[in-house]
């Protein structure tokens, strides 16, 4: 299925730069994500990623994927999956998260 919600947090805060065991690709991804988040915080909009402008999310259009092997890649498959599965995922995940936070 791919990565889960919030799996980006260690990369955004640079964990691969300070903890051993991460690959060079993980380190590069972390550096790029920190640049993207810092640019967004400073300017109020995401920067270009590779040669691609990061556009606002729209259901019928693709979403940008941060793929270390293809910066700025866009795709629709994951967006379509989430939209189709949302009615199932949401009721099952939210109660589990609330139970785990207690």
Automatic annotation (TrEMBL):
The lineage of its organism: Eukaryota, Metazoa, Ecdysozoa, Arthropoda, Chelicerata. PANTHER family: ACETYLCHOLINESTERASE, CARBOXYLIC ESTER HYDROLASE. Residues 1-73 form the Carboxylesterase type B domain. It comes from the Eukaryota. GO terms for biological process: acetylcholine catabolic process; choline metabolic process. GO terms for cellular component: extracellular space; plasma membrane. Belongs to the type-B carboxylesterase/lipase family. This is Carboxylesterase type B domain-containing protein. Transmembrane segments: none annotated. It holds the Pfam family COesterase.
């Amino acid at each position: 299925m791919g990565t889960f919600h919030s799996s980006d947090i260690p990369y955004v805060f640079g964990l691969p730069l300070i903890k051993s065991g991460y690959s060079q690709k993980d380190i590069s991804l972390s550096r790029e994500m920190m640049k993207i988040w810092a640019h967004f915080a400073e300017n109020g909009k995401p920067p270009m990623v590779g040669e691609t402008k990061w556009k606002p999310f729209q259901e019928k259009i693709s979403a940008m994927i941060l793929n270390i092997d293809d910066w700025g890649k866009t795709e629709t498959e994951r967006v379509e999956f989430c939209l189709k599965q949302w009615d199932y995922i949401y009721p099952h995940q939210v109660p589990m998260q609330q139970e785990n936070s207690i």
